[in-house]
Amino acid sequence: MVELLSPARDFAAMESALNNGANAVYIGLDGYNMRAHTANFSMENLNQAAERCHHHRVKLYVCTNTVMRNKDIEHLKTVLPEIKSAGADAIIASDLGVLKIARDVGIDVHLSVQANVSNSESLKLLHELGVKRVVLSRELHLEDIRAMTEDSPLEVEVFIHGAMCLAISGRCFLSSYLYQKNANCGECLQPCRKEWKLVSDDGDVLSLGLAGNKGLDENKSLEGDGASLNESNNPCDSKGRVDKINGFKGHILSPRDLCMIKHIPQLMEAGISSFKIEGRARPADYVATVTRVYREAIDSYQSGDWEFQDQWLDDLKKVYNRGFDTGFYFQTPYQTSSYNQATHTKQDVGEVVNYYSQVNAAEIRLWNPLKVGDEIIVQGLTTGSIIQRVESMQIDHRDIFEAHKGQNVGILLTRKVRPGDIIYRRIKRNK
């Protein structure tokens, strides 16, 4: 059975993964992962994280996949035994020195996508070195992956959803060059997501099509001795056209997000061991939605009753995304995107004051209006993320249709919540 692997930046995201069908969760530790600016887990609460996962019969993987210098390796010699004793099922690593230490400690190693593994001979060598699983390069086509899994001595993992990097398997130096923030030490400030303009040295313009989403205009070529990319805060016109003075402006370095929800059958038949969702910087409601959708799709295929549901894609569009693409799976270059293209956003409307387990109802103190029919998200560190419609509301045991700021209301919920949990209302965005 294929594993569904979900990300977690904190306990709320972890609970969301556990409650929505993840088979495994991967997390980062402070100082040793590729999301240094995200709220990570610590050695002090790693044991609790492992206990929560194992209570749900879910595996826990810990990221240690940054660039490792001598001082980092020395510290990791102390940290890895603690990670193992805390109950982690494996580490995700990209450095051969970390692999050696992990072998000595006796903890399984999943080789990170940062290693850029892209052929069968590498799999065989890594097997000899003691690696248990490899996260394959994002730049592989599906037919390449299928060929590699046929005789692979290792488990094979691939990304199926989430952000894609401009550089080959994350090996980017743009953040280091511009801001002295090392992307491969988890400090990337993502300058690729900003708007840029492209001009030649002598002022001629390279046309990249509308808003950078159509690829290179084959009828235009760059004239002059060279060209330069310059970060720009000035938008192109409403149709994404070239500014004849300043050159092309747009999100020409920003890939869309990977989304393989329509292609679950092809992935399932490719011999892949684990489907990975990107998103350790994403909030709990994102993890809940994406995990649930892919869980339903995988289960649909495994039941022998596969039929793509339009609602799956609609739900994925409701949470943060930059537009969707299939990356390199089908040999087509991915398109670029502007920024958030989610169809919905969320507004905080209140917090849970009390929960009454006998009737599955919560008392909520409202900060903003709420009405019957609204789609809400209840989010908390222990609760995770619950997404549902408001079916009914009461004040003093009287049914009401709408409540206002400052009121305390009672609503029925599908799962247990806790005082202090925050309530959000999901709102359709105006684009």
UniProtKB/TrEMBL annotation:
Keyword Hydrolase listed? The answer is yes
Highest taxon, organism lineage: Archaea
One Pfam family of this chain? Peptidase_U32
Q: Name one GO molecular function term.
A: peptidase activity
**UniProt keyword annotations, A-Z:** Hydrolase, Protease
Record flagged with keyword Manganese? no
Q: Which InterPro entries match?
A: Peptidase_U32 (IPR001539), RNA/ubiquinone_mod_enzymes (IPR051454), Transl_B-barrel_sf (IPR009000)
One of the GO biological process terms? proteolysis
Family, per entry: Belongs to the peptidase U32 family.
**Protein name (record):** Peptidase U32
User: What's the source species for this entry?
Assistant: Methanobacterium subterraneum
Organism lineage: Archaea, Methanobacteriati, Methanobacteriota, Methanomada group, Methanobacteria
